[in-house]
Amino acid sequence: MSTVTSADGTTIAFDAYGEGRPLILIDGATAHRAVNPANAEVGQLLSDEFRTYVYDRRGRGQSTDTAPYAIEREIEDIASLIDDAGQPAILFGWSSGALLALDAAAADLPIAGLVLFEPPVVVDDIRPPLPSDYVEQLDAFVAAGRRDKAAELFMTAAAGLPAEAVAGMKQSPYWAPVEEIAHTIAYDGRIMGTTMSGTPLPEDRWSAVKLPVLVLHGDKTWPALSSGAQAVAAHLPTATLNAIPGENHSTDPSTLAPVLRTFARSL
């Protein structure tokens, strides 16, 4: 494990695989290195050609946190990783991490290209929108010491799982790590903003993004996720859309790595 220090003094922990052009993998809500081995596997598969950064977003895993939270702080975290790499990086974002990658590019960080996997976007009535007070509810649960309720709200309202499925998850080993970092779910809620409101994407949020963008979704994923990927690709003038055969919201590293390699070589 290595670390960098972000602009506000937060320690960001990461593993790096290989040498070459830098590729930074950005997790979505609740994920970090200890619970998502897929990023490390992707890094290992690409280590012959790329230096892949797999990091814990602030407040998760072995990274520290500094209040108050702001999306700008997470963009600064990415900037610190790019500084460590010493050259413009390619960013890959899972789910809400894809929106953070877009925000980093809009902030004019030295980025060569973006790959966005199933960003959480709902622009129509394909599924219920997030509650308008979603972030406020999350904050209130955390403030009350009820991280379990914050995690439940994320699983039902954002991920769209039925309550009975969440009840089953709470009896599994998977649940404790989610509850542990449930305070960061509101971070991703702020990053999503209105992207899951059932209304068109804001015209100005990513208007500064002019670099190449590849938007991915699995062709076996939930319809709302493929629809969201299509909406993001249509919204960004420099984007192309690619459906990955046989995959869903958790794509196999052996399938994802060649897609990333091909895109990176095209830049």
Automatic annotation (TrEMBL):
Domain AB hydrolase-1: 41-251
Gene Ontology MF terms in the entry: catalytic activity
Gene3D superfamilies registered for this protein in UniProt: alpha/beta hydrolase
Family annotation (InterPro entries): AB_hydrolase, AB_hydrolase_1, AB_hydrolase_fold
Protein name as it appears in the record: Pimeloyl-ACP methyl ester carboxylesterase
